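Pinned message: reference record for G-protein coupled receptors family 1 profile domain-containing protein
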Amino acid sequence: KQAMKIANTWRKNRLMYIQLVSISVLYFIIWIPFCIISLIRLFYNPFFFQDVTMLLINYCLYICPLASPLISLVGLPVVRQHLRRLKLHIPWTGHITENRIRPTGIIVLQTITQHHTVSRRHNDEHQV
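Predicted structure (tokens):
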């Protein structure tokens, strides 16, 4: 019973966890190269990647605060529905599959019956 509650908690908070991980990965992608280059410059060679550090990496640090709200906005249901209408694919907002056991024969029978009804209507319209 408790395992089911834990699984439901994870399922309910799945998008929040994905947002947290994506923002963390964004910060790691930006900050790890900066820290490595800074440590190399501090301990080994003060002129190592001096131009790159001054021109590119110092400005890349501003990407994290600018991109964090955008990543958080994608987690809102209204924004996700709007992006789905625009046919944009967001990797972490896939549909949750239901694990219910259902009789498949009834569903197949209903779709076949609906198909025959539609095809009869189509034929009747062409005969008139």
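Pinned by admin. Summary line: The two ends are 62 Å apart (CA to CA).
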